[in-house]
Amino acid sequence: MRGTAVVVGGGIGGLAAALGLRRIGWEVRVVERAAVLADAGAGISLHANGLRALDAVGAGAAVRAAARPQYTGGTRTPSGRWLSRMDGTVLERRLGTPIVGIPRAELHRLLRAALPAECLLTGVTVDTLDLSAADRARVPVGDGALDADLVVAADGVHSRLRGLLFPDHPGPVYAGSTVLRAITEGPLETGTDFALTWGEGAEFGHIAFADGRAEWHAVLTAPAGVRHTDPLAVLRRRFADWHEPVRALLAATRPEAVLHHDIHELLTPLPSFVAGRVALLGDAAHAMTPHLGQGACQALEDAATLAAALAGESSVGAALARYDAERRPRAQAVARAARQAGRMGQGLSHPLAVALRNTGLRLAPSRATMGAILRHADWAPPSLV
């Protein structure tokens, strides 16, 4: 089956969906609200499931070439004591690839580069849809409209289209944590390819990139909406007695490079990832907390699965029913697991609870840590042919 699609949202999931649809012979337009694609963002880790999904839509090789494998790392306490370690070579043997780290802007650029320039419309906000016709959808764009067999709603955690299609759904809620992140100004020796450190009500992590720079993030339990005049100074005080390279990462960062966002999630699961001729994808469908590093990977899984369903079914309706049946249970289960991981990690603030968790992690066998990663990363995309 071939047809035309409009993808609303030019983020990672939306671009991957466009690549997958074009790979099965569909005509695609991506409509993006931002007028200028400034390639803002920090860093991202991609697990085997995300990389396999990228392979399926045709972008895996380019992303791997630009990314840095994560062979060394683990979880520590603020004093620097290791709670658990992860061996990326073991993951590579089990899954065919280690986890990789890449600047988010570079990932966006690579996905866009794989699409013809005329596929992307910028500076266009989609607030409504015309779904009155049984066999077509109409997407208002400026003074005109785009007709399509399929609309992909990939417009993020605060999705306008989700609110339109599911008006009784409560929408995203504040998860109780805020995240500050940045990329260092220049190369920095971090000692490991990645690491997480859990303190009381705080998490600090880093990802090393192929060019020697590193991304860091700080997740803090805090009220929603709190902002600081000088967030970098606040973080330097907050993490002043934490182990290196935490302080070195902050010292290597320009104040204007720090991004600050409150974390929102879909605490109430959607009853469906489809409505009529619309498929919801990525954060629009299953916004989750970042504690498993699976948000983007799940969006990429969505993209590959949607393309495979459309390639394998004789009608859009049948394909979307298959997409919902294959994606909703898994994505919502991963979202629940991410929420639980946050509660057991950065979400713990009582010293006794933190001590009990740390003891449990230190005593856990390494295969338990590996099993937790494999549980979500060991996924293979359906065939697009």
3D architecture notes:
The protein has 13 helices and 18 strands. The longest helix is centred in the C-terminal third of the chain and has 29 residues, at 316-344. The mean pLDDT is 94. It has a domain at 4-70 and 98-173 and 265-344: FAD/NAD(P)-binding domain, CATH 3.50.50. It is α/β, with parallel strands linked by helices. The strands form 4 sheets. The chain has a 7-stranded mixed β-sheet with strand order 6-5-13-14-15-12-16. A 6-stranded mixed β-sheet has the order 8-2-1-11-18-17. A 3-stranded antiparallel β-sheet has the order 3-7-4. It is globular.
Task: Please describe the topology of this protein.
Elements: E1 4-8, H1 12-23, E2 27-31, E3 43-46, H2 48-57, H3 60-66, E4 68-70, E5 72-76, E6 82-87, H4 88-95, E7 99-103, H5 104-113, E8 120-121, E9 137-141, E10 144-148, E11 150-153, H6 160-165, E12 173-183, E13 194-198, E14 202-208, E15 214-221, H7 231-238, H8 246-251, E16 259-265, E17 274-275, E18 278-280, H9 283-286, H10 295-312, H11 316-344, H12 351-363, H13 366-377
Parallel strand pairs: 1-2, 1-11, 2-8, 5-13, 11-18
Antiparallel strand pairs: 3-7, 4-7, 5-6, 9-10, 12-15, 12-16, 13-14, 14-15, 17-18
